[in-house]
Amino acid sequence: xxxxxxxxxxxxxxxxxxxxxxxxxxxxxxxxxxxxxxxxxxxxxxxxxxxxxxxxxxxxxxxxxxxxxxxxxxxxxxxxxxxxxxxxxxxxxxxxxxxxxxxxxxxxxxxxxxxxxxxxxxxxxxxxxxxxxxxxxxxxxxxxxxxxxxxxxxxxxxxxxxxxxxxxxxxxxxxxxxxxxxxxxxxxxxxxxxxxxxxxxxxxxxxxxxxxxxxxxxxxxxxxx
Length: 225
Ligand code: CDP
Ligand code: CDP
Known about the structure:
2 domains; alpha/beta; 7 strands; Multifunctional fusion protein; globular; binds cytidine-5'-diphosphate
């Protein structure tokens, strides 16, 4: 039969990838794969090892990788650490501070990519990350690249974190943190050549979700023929 559908959603930090991907997946009734969650899971174990971050090596980090598995839920492909869901710890500041360092390790990237590819070869998926349409699924049937102004991305990140409207000086501070992280990141998030770029700066999340869902439906139709 036809290979599973892969929709790749890439973009820089706080561009809206993971919440958009989750919503799109739900409307198309396929699974969401958050590739960042795999980077966070392996970083979580490196932190838990107790060794200081500057002593982490590819080998010491990857030694723990067999403690991470994934399972299919109705809506997603969920990474598990020692068989358990660790959603909150994975989003925490310690993991966030250290994840770029771990994601810069080529062998770690290979490991995450193989996890994500195995999920995407089993079921239809919407996958979000930094390099999904380029390195992980270069043949994804639909590739979307989300962008938004740095100020707007900082504002959204703070609303998410604080559950209130941030003031301008808070946003300015977050802009610096975002710019630093974008620079640190192993993948500089260049769009794939066949990606459709959507600037979400002045678009509501609902609108961008609708656009991607429409593209996803059209892609499905095309594949059926
Ligand atoms: O995964 P990534 O870091 O790219 O972003 P996210 O955590 O999915 O999205 C950051 C926040 O921006 C979420 O709270 C979204 O609801 C919000 N947002 C958006 O994604 N798109 C808009 N047009 C407006 C808000
Ligand atoms: O939401 P945000 O983009 O800040 O992060 P995330 O999607 O939760 O991913 C966490 C980190 O993992 C990113 O900051 C990248 O350093 C790394 N990552 C990556 O290198 N490649 C991916 N496909 C996904 C995440």
